[in-house]
Amino acid sequence: MDAMQYEAPGSVDEAVALLAAADGAAWVLAGGTDLLVQLRADLIEPGLVVDIKGISELRAITPENGGFRIGAAVTGAELGEHEGVKAVWPGVVEAMELIGSVQIQGRATLGGNLCNASPAADSVPALIAAEALCSVVGPKGRREVAVAEVATGPGETSLGPGEIVVDILLPERPARAADAYLRFIPRTEMDIAVVGVAVSLVLDERGVCAQARVALGAVAPRALLVPEAAAALIGGTVDDDALERLAAAARAACRPIDDMRGTVAYRTKVAGVLARRAAGIALARARSE
Amino acid sequence: MAKYHVSTSINDEAVEFLCEPQQTLLDVLRDELQLFGSKEGCSSGDCGACSVMLDGRLVCACLVLGVEAEGRAVETIEGMAKGDQLHPLQQSFLEEAALQCGVCTPGILIAAKALLERNPNPTETEVRYWLAGNLCRCTGYDKIVRSVLAVAEEMRGG
Hints:
The structure holds two protein chains of two kinds. Chain A has eleven helices and 14 strands. Chain A is α+β, with helices and mostly antiparallel strands. Chain A has three domains: 5-51, 2-Layer Sandwich (Uridine Diphospho-n-acetylenolpyruvylglucosamine Reductase, domain 2), CATH 3.30.43; 56-170, 2-Layer Sandwich (Uridine Diphospho-n-acetylenolpyruvylglucosamine Reductase, domain 3); 177-287, Enolase-like, domain 1 (2-Layer Sandwich). In chain A, helix 5 packs antiparallel against helix 8 (123-129), helix 9 (227-233) runs antiparallel to helix 10 and helix 10 (240-253) crosses helix 11 (264-287). Chain B is α+β, with helices and mostly antiparallel strands. In chain B, strands 2-1-5-3-4 form a five-stranded mixed sheet, sandwiched between helices. Chain B starts with a strand and ends with a helix. The chains are: A alpha+beta, B alpha+beta.
């Protein structure tokens, strides 16, 4: 690393101005659990590093219209300690909490996990299933983007020069609604998802699934929303037949790679298994609402 | 290259240092402040040998920039014993032989102390999950886990 410059602005406008004026490489530093590793390994060019942790609104979790606006620099540990978010969006919280060790949880952020754009990012399928929106601020002002539109491929995002994800909005939930996230890794901790599956669903008074969203991670260049998988659940009581159709749709959506963590065939099979299990957990949670 | 001037607190003492922007907190502790207790293992946040507390959170010092310590409170293994009085975890690790080469030990002690402050009565499973970010290639972990559980009981007055 050489020619690095560090700035810790106190406002979003200041951060955007710094990034927009950067001559060469410029990086947003939130938790640093990806950025500092990439810098250290010479995977990215050093340059301007803008630390956004000094911006108070990016560190806050704010209730909003029955949902929650979560600052991009909120850490996994802080999210996991927030009883309000846990109660309404347990799947999002469990996905974020799966990332790394206690040490990583003390630093890693929801915004960082999103913008690092790993296909295997644990929080992203859960945020997509939750239909979360993020606020992006840049030189041209503020815009709202669906979380699913942020990553465009491994390490690539749709953010323009000088743009920062400042917060993520988890919407309000009706009664009898719940979400769940499951991932498969070869050990019980400290690994990267071979497959991740998030399921979010809403039941009506009769226990019929009225709405559902299913998202897959680590089986394509970016996390995928799978409407065919959700369609298998909607309109029924999430019985065994629906779960099998869900699994088949999840498998059909997979476009994974072969690597040391799993083959194409293995990832595809596991996606179906995890989809069934995650739907079962979401269903049980929604019924106990 | 211009150096950054950082004012921070390390083990409850006000400390000022100069560092380059790319230096990690671990680099600063070891190379600028001669605090050699925190170890460098992987430099990628996997092994936990550099575990320290930053504003009361357990973190890997290799994943924090030195400049980020400005205005914050850092606790390292050097602050764990009070003079000659070892922390009960340190004493127990000695008595139970919960270390062999010792490279992972400072990080594990810091992490275990953070666990017991949050959860004075952890189960064995909770201890193992909490310490999953601290790798030890010598002990097989059993003695470490047993030591932590024994100290938890002792500190609860059991």
